[in-house]
Amino acid sequence: MPDLRDLYQDVILEHSKAPRNFRELSAANHKAEGYNPLCGDHFTVYVDIDGDSIRDIGFQGSGCAISKASASMMTQILKGKSTAEAEQLFARFHKLVTGAPTANGDQTELGKLAVFSGVSEFPVRVKCATLAWHTLHAALEGKQQTVSTE
Amino acid sequence: MTSVARRLPTVLRPPQAQNIGGFDVEKLRRDFPILKQKIRGRRLVYLDNAATSQKPQAVIDAISHYYERDNSNVHRGVHYLSERATEEFENARQTVQRFINAASASEIIFTRGTTEGINLVAQTYGRTHVGPGDEILVTALEHHSNIVPWQLLRDEKGAKLRVAPVNDSGELLLEEFEKLLSPRTNIVAVTHISNAIGTVIPLRQIIEMAHRRNVPVLVDGAQAVPHLTVDVQALDCDFYTFSSHKLYGPTGMGVLYGKSALLDAMPPYQGGGDMISSVTFEKTTYNKLPYKFEAGTPHVAGAIGLGAAIDYVNALGIENLAAHEHDLLAYATEKVSALPGIRVIGTAKEKAAVLSFVLDGVHPHDVGTILDQEGIAIRTGHHCAQPVMQRFEVPATARASFALYNTREEVDVLVEGLQRVQEVFA
Ligand SMILES: Cc1ncc(COP(=O)(O)O)c(C=O)c1O
């Protein structure tokens, strides 16, 4: 039986209560909205990109603990990374939370994000964990439409 | 009529602490095979009845009996099985007629569910009566299925959708409702009971107000039929629609009641077999009621299952169910409200079987996941009623909803589960 503590790890709870980079970026040159119609989670991700590197990133909105912590930790890890690295991390993160086999080195690349591995035991929560990442992806692609997890 | 339904106690014992409403809940629970299973190693506590209710053995048996013994197409064959299937199917229609006290069985149209009933009326009555600038009046409590079909009609016809507001308790503001009834109002469509927050609306007054202005009223009875006695003639509503699956019956099945004068004058909804009396390439004559609105092979097993579900409910007495569920709602409201950091959404004086709430600092989705680990099934989200969430300025709620087989012990398990949620998020 999956254990609740695998899902609600302290780090996740802590980020959900005090999310980092939880603000609108006035300097953002990329932004996108993400929406999960199933539970009403709704975030906007703001990115300030300089060349191909993420100079600053923030988010706003509301959602469950998993989606909020995921957004918060995503912004932390991505600051200073290149957009290509961001996409690569998203791919690895996606594998992690869906329980897909991961390649050697994925875990180390993911660093602190590894706390989300417990999500794979709770399939209905995968969309919560990936909402911010999908939204980031849309922002990087310059899409204006709201992305939806459905 | 199934023999299993007859086995149920018709002589009810006087109320006791553990069997409020005059029936023995523990005994009734045994009628529902699904409740016997363990979920994640724990006894299933099913509190998502507003989404769909579980099915008693009598309903399951009626459906398998039909497929094992009577299966055949209806209204077509001259052979023995077809005759028997048709008889069972039409018996179910009469069971529904008596259940809601319709004047005639020909006013009972079988549909796929509440949603189809509303779409049927919007696309037939609506399309022939609502024109540019006309108004459709709903309430702020509607399920999406009583909003979107009217928006489709509004957009097609250039009509307007008006919304009667509710107060902070979730009660309909009757005076505002009356003000919104204008000379341009062509139809009123209201939910009898809110699925999101449990409000029972003052239906009689609404219908009287509308009828004084000659406006017909459609009632979305999806949440009402399982919890209170519905008498469509006493209410004098023009259309009443509900789903079988929330009434202990099978999915894919529902009912639209309409007054025959209205139904007669309406164009058909879908075309096909069964809904015609003669077809040439030049001209088709439609069948009489209710068949005019039942194109194609109907859900025969579904109708028979619904009939069995109604027999089951009737044997218990809907007023007894209502009393039992009311006790559970009052008990749950008291217990849940006593927890710190919890706000009940929807505190109308008249409520039925639904307790919606939010916890400080915990998103309903997280509440749902943690309760699920304890074997407790509740609904979290917007309950297909996003405008209700917007009215109460919450993104979503957690909702416990009760049925005849729920117990006070289950409410206690829910309360313990909520305490566990608060521990995790402390
Ligand atoms: C008030 C109300 N109306 C309509 C519906 C739609 O019912 P169905 O999905 O069975 O057509 C529901 C069910 O969720 C409901 O609660």
Question: What is the mean predicted local confidence, pLDDT of chain A?
Answer: 91
Shape of chain B: globular
The shape of chain A, in one word, is: globular
The residue ranges of chain B in which pLDDT falls below 50 over 5 or more consecutive positions are 1-18
CATH architecture of the largest domain in chain B: 3-Layer(aba) Sandwich
- Tell me the radius of gyration of chain A: 14 Å
CATH homologous superfamily name of the largest domain in chain B? Answer: Type I PLP-dependent aspartate aminotransferase-like (Major domain)
In what order do the strands lie side by side in the largest sheet of chain A?
Answer: 3-2-1-4
Tell me the number of structural domains of chain A.
1
Using the coordinates above, name the CATH class of the largest domain in chain B.
Alpha Beta
Instruction: State the order of secondary-structure elements of chain A, H for helix, E for strand.
Output: HHEEEHHHHE
Adjacency order of strands in the biggest sheet of chain B: 4-10-9-8-7-5-6
For the biggest sheet of chain B, the summary is: 7 strands, mixed
Low-confidence stretches of chain A: none
DSSP strand count of chain B: 17
Beta fraction of the residues of chain B?
15-25%
Return the structural class of chain B: alpha/beta
Through-space gap between termini of chain A: 27 Å
Mean pLDDT of chain B: 93
Number of strands of chain A: 4
Tell me what you see in this structure.
The complex is a heterodimer of chains A (150) and B (426). With 150 residues, chain A is α+β, with helices and mostly antiparallel strands. Chain A has one domain (2-141): Alpha-Beta Complex (Sufe protein. Chain: A). Chain A is built from six helices and four strands, in the order ααβββααααβ. Chain A has helices at 4-7, 10-17, 65-78, 83-98, 106-110, 126-141, and strands at residues 30-36, 41-50, 53-62, 147-148. In chain A, strands 3-2-1-4 form a four-stranded mixed β-sheet, covered by helices on one side. In chain A, β2 (41-50) and β3 (53-62) form a beta hairpin. In chain A, α3 (65-78) packs across α6 and α4 (83-98) runs antiparallel to α6. The longest helix of chain A is centred in the middle third of the chain and has 16 residues, at 83-98. The radius of gyration of chain A is 14 Å and the shape is globular. The mean pLDDT of chain A is 91. Chain B is α/β, with parallel strands linked by helices and 426 residues long. Chain B folds into two domains: 32-47 and 317-424, Aspartate Aminotransferase, domain 1, CATH 3.90.1150.10; 61-314, Aspartate Aminotransferase, domain 2 (3-Layer(aba) Sandwich). Chain B is 39% helix and 16% strand. Chain B has 15 helices and 17 strands. In chain B, strands 4-10-9-8-7-5-6 form a seven-stranded mixed β-sheet, with helices on both faces. Chain B is globular and about 75 Å long. In chain B, 50% of the residues are buried. Mean pLDDT of chain B is 93; it is low at 1-18. At the A-B interface, α3 of A face α13 of B. Pyridoxal-5'-phosphate is lined by residues 113-115, 143, 145-146, 191, 195, 220, 222-223, 243, 384 of chain B.
